[in-house]
Amino acid sequence: MTALAAPPPAPPERTKTRLLELVKRHGPQTAQDLAQGLEVSVPAARRHLCDLQEQGLIEARTERPGGRGRPQHVFVLTERGEAAFPKTYSSLCVDVLRHIEGLFGEGAVLKVLDARNNEIISHFEQDVPANLPLGERVQGLVNRLNRHGFDAVVHQEGEQWYFTQRNCPNLTVARQYAQLCTAEKTLYAALLGVPVERETRMACGQGNCRYRVGPPTS
């Protein structure tokens, strides 16, 4: 009787998806836990974990099991990793803004967003002092945007600074409420302390949101 051949290994991307699902479903996991759940070797699980860390989807922490015992390294989803799973936040946000606008008028949405901006500015100023060179402040802003899933990059052309958002976690809301994009641009100018102009906008169907920082150089 001919022995059945072993099933082919799962494609790497499918394995990474399963790994994310395990962490989502069961919470913080060790590399050994994940290797067992994926039915792969621990070194193979670590390779997938390394790739996912580089993509910003997973991060490592040191925890004590149950608050006791020896510390161990566990892996959890980042905000970007959480965003890979379906959410209803955008529809909830649109509903809330619609009710705010209906109850308090069109200007109420922008007032709410302005209040949110003021809170963000206070935290940003603690992390990125106003006396830093402009390029460092732009990089600090981009770092913050990336922690929230905007996939942003910064570059310089001559003396002019630019940054580009290649993803918009708020796109569904922004398409219905342009006030969100208005408040966003106002926030960036306040954080950087210089004028900021938006040259492209995803909510209008363009491929990214590109910003020019400061007035155009001559």
List keywords for this structure.
single chain; Muramoyl-pentapeptide Carboxypeptidase, domain 2; Arc Repressor Mutant, subunit A; 9 helices; alpha+beta; 2 domains; two-stranded antiparallel ribbon; 218 residues
Explain the overall architecture.
The radius of gyration is 22 Å and the shape is globular. A 4-stranded antiparallel β-sheet has the order 3-4-6-5, covered by helices on one side. A two-stranded antiparallel ribbon has the order 1-2. The protein has 9 helices and 6 strands; from the N terminus they run αααββααααββααββ. It is α+β, with helices and mostly antiparallel strands. α2 packs across α3. Helices cover 52% and strands 16% of the residues. This is Transcriptional regulator. InterPro entries: ArsR-like_HTH, Carb_Metab_HTH_regulators, HTH_MarR-typ, WH-like_DNA-bd_sf, WH_DNA-bd_sf.
For the secondary structure, the number of strands is: 6
Q: Give the number of helices.
A: 9
Residue stretches low in confidence (pLDDT < 50, at least 5 long) are: 1-9
Helix content: 40-55%
Q: What composes the largest sheet?
A: 4 strands, antiparallel
Shape category: globular
Which CATH class of the largest domain is shown? Answer: Alpha Beta
Oligomer: single chain
The succession of helices and strands, N to C, reads: HHHEEHHHHEEHHEE
Tell me the span between the first and last alpha carbons. Answer: 82 Å
Number of folding domains? 2
CATH architecture of the largest domain: 2-Layer Sandwich
Task: Provide the CATH superfamily of the largest domain.
Answer: Trafficking protein particle complex subunit 3
Class per helix and strand makeup? alpha+beta
Rg from alpha-carbon coordinates:
22 Å
Main sheet: strand order: 3-4-6-5
CATH topology of the largest domain: Muramoyl-pentapeptide Carboxypeptidase, domain 2
What would the average pLDDT be, to the nearest integer? 85
Estimate the strand proportion.
15-25%
